[in-house]
Amino acid sequence: MCTTTNSPETIERLKQYSDRIEQLARDLGLDYYPVDFELVPNNFMMEIAVYGLPVRMPHWSFGVRYIHQLIRQGMGHSRIFEVMFPGDPCRAYLVNGNTLPENTLVTAHVLGHADFSKNNHLFAHFMEMAGGHILEQAAARAHRIETAIHEYGQERVEAVLDAALALEPHIDINRELHRPLYPAVKPRAAPEPEPDSFQKRYRQLPGEKPHADSHTTTRRPQVPPQPEYDLLWFIANYAPELEGWERDIFLAVREESYYFYPVFACQIMNEGWASYWHARLLREADFLPQDLYLSAIKAHSDVVRPYAAEKQLALAVNPYHLGFSMWEDIIEKHGLEAARRIVKEEDDFGFIRNYLTRDLIEKLELFVYEARDDGDIRISENNVHAVHEAILAPKFNYGAPRIAANHMHVDGSLQLLHDHQSDGRGLDLGRAERVLEYIGRVWRRPVTLHTVGERGEARVVTSKRI
């Protein structure tokens, strides 16, 4: 039963089980766009996981991530069972090196993801903006970038990609993907000073032409008119010397960021929902052989276990375990229809704050910890608010510091501002300097970032003059 899913016989058996699981899912009320399943080798699955898409714009940073993932997998710390891309249709990739029971479970898991992505308001909204054919769009962008490399050279294209990918999470999720430029400021009438008595008598002399009451002046608009948090959009549209192909790269990275945002913002809900449904579908799939079912349930237990490896101290939340436990609790207390309403209306912020109760926190033994300088770990608190915010803090603002383009000076130099008060997250100044260098190369004017240091003192990071 531990045979991998890469022989004609096991592939055919998986297809038969998958077809019947899909029918069972429909019978139980799951509603999703069609799912295209594909079996792929492990190395290709790793590339998908690292690049985020089967075909994506080439960049050295993805190679670094690939090596990191390869090391983690070799050490037994990371294993990828599947990758699913929401859309119409959805695209799901399964590893052919998985066993038949594992891929049977993964099939059911994917259907849970597909149901969630179709019915959740955040997924629906962002899919409407970014489109439901991300794989085809990403492949077309990758082709355009390859063309740019041949035309403009590897070094120039890579410099643009460095800046765009360094700013990948810096979008404004409260703004539309396709948004207009700032409104132009119309010329305004400037009133003339009130004439004195001599000027009044002079204008009344015979033959004098009437004097205009006012004249118009053009006021230079402030750019941006207010702090702009969508840095990818701002640079694409307002960098003083950005060429068309460079602008296209920034907008391509931005569009992919919009597509991936719901996956990031609903991770706990989404993985928990998919885990709840794969467990239920397997439990009700009486057509599965008993030994396959037991092996699949063992895989389920490994996925939703609260702790990593054999350690009995969890220093990070397993989204599968937390989400699965929360959905089970919600459905047991409020019913499946209430759970479906939550799927539609919430993201992880509302889900955690509204439905991770004190009882569940104690049952799951969730806590906030502090790492001391001597390396010891100390539990600091386990009250509801502290646990909620500890889970959600890394999700704020797409997991990135809250940085705004604050002012573009007459000479084209750019001032960025770190909103550290609402951000609640400090800056790694070394990393900030590197990112600023990337931005400076495409902005082609000095760029400064105003932030604070560890003690709250004002700090200014400046790019080199390009």
TrEMBL record:
Transmembrane segments: none annotated. InterPro entries: Spore_V_R, SpoVR_N. Residues 10-388 form the SpoVR protein-like N-terminal domain. This is Stage V sporulation protein R.
